[in-house]
Amino acid sequence: MPKYHASLENAFAALADPTRRAVVEALSNGPATVSQLASPFAMALPSFTQHLGILERAGLVTSRREGRARICALNPQGLRAAEDWLALNRQQWEARLDRFEAHLANEGKDTDDGQEPAG
To answer: Can you say how many angstroms the Cα of residue 85 is from the centroid of all Cα atoms in its chain?
Structure first.
């Protein structure tokens, strides 16, 4: 099994949580303050900032200070490892599904002759 970079593992671990996926989705519309990002969630701000910390350590999100506000934004490069892995594997999955579909189509032809399938 090939070894993948820690960035890939960290990206998938960070995205495994629905709150963090929602944050990434929200940031796909553009940068936002921590308060804006936290507002849809029924959790204390310190708990929410832990989620942001995980996304930052995974390299998926960046943040900067603007006055008293902390502005978060997506880091497209951080998503690159996960995107590349998914694209590579999607080709393999689709090829396997195509072969399976062809196999099922051939099985259907064999049973169309009026005989019961062997089983």
So the answer is: 11
Q: Where are the beta strands (DSSP E) in 1-119?
A: 32-33, 61-66, 69-74
Contact 8, 85 (CB under 8 A): yes
Q: Is the pLDDT of residue 60 over 50?
A: yes
Percent helix, strand and coil across the chain, each rounded to 5?
A: 60, 10, 25
Give 69's strand partners.
Answer: 66
User: Is 95's pLDDT higher than 80?
Assistant: yes
- How far is it, in rounded angstroms, from Cα 28 to Cα 108? 45
Give residue for tokens 């497209």: 76
Report residue 114: phi and psi, to 5°: 90, -5
Q: Give the whole-angstrom CA distance, residue 36 versus residue 33.
A: 5
Q: What's the pLDDT tens digit per position in 3-58?
A: 557 778 899 999 999 999 999 999 999 999 999 999 999 999 999 999 999 999 99
Return the bridge partners of 64, or none: 71
pTM for the predicted model, two decimal places: 0.72
